[in-house]
Amino acid sequence: MTTAPSPTSGFSAFALEPFPEVRPGDDVASAITDVLSRTGTTLLDGDVVVVASKVVSIAEKRYVDLADVTPSAEALDLSARTGKPAAVVQLILDHSTEHFLATERGPIIARHHLGHVLTSAGIDRAGDEGAWLLPVDPDASARALRDALVAHTGADVAVVIADSDGRADRRGATCISIGAAGVAPLRLTEHDGKRQEETFTDMVAAAAGIILGQRGRGVPAAVLRGVGYVPSDVGVAAMLHPAPTH
Fold this sequence. Notes:
about 250 residues, alpha+beta, CATH 3.30.1330.100, CofE-like fold, 3-stranded antiparallel beta sheet, globular
């Protein structure tokens, strides 16, 4: 799983825009190929298409109506401490195995059932009435998207699904990978007798995040071109530490 790709001395990145609004049940691959067609853009072999997880969640109908969520006593207590709606807190508890508060007022950092440690377990608010859950299997979603793009464009591309996330030790948010297809999630670099294993798809997601932004940008997909990587379908799940046993 950990391999050394060809060196990268430089790369380019660009947004796929204007991007159509994705609705529940829509085909993300079709939305991407529509942008490519309308803008006269061609995908090339080796391109990495980075897609925001929320778009995938919307397409996969991962919406939850908060009115259908009954908060537990623990959720009510966490809500009072953090100011986060109790129904949203309950979703965080329902979709995680453990959690802690980064500060006395939050945010809530939780280990999702998928194994990712994420702010709010990756739960994304949908206005005041709903929330979006993560894709059921982000690696599988990435593989399906990659296969559809290859079939439509003929280009041998990779796909990374990126999610915005915060760190407990600092303010702000960045982008990490939660799903990948066609690109090994880890790479091994060697220099002067030293070897380092790197979370490569996280680096890809962070690079694309400069374009994707967090909220209000309206561009859920970007392309990185010229990045050296090792093709692989093991997915991001392959580099996660096993959940701790109790």
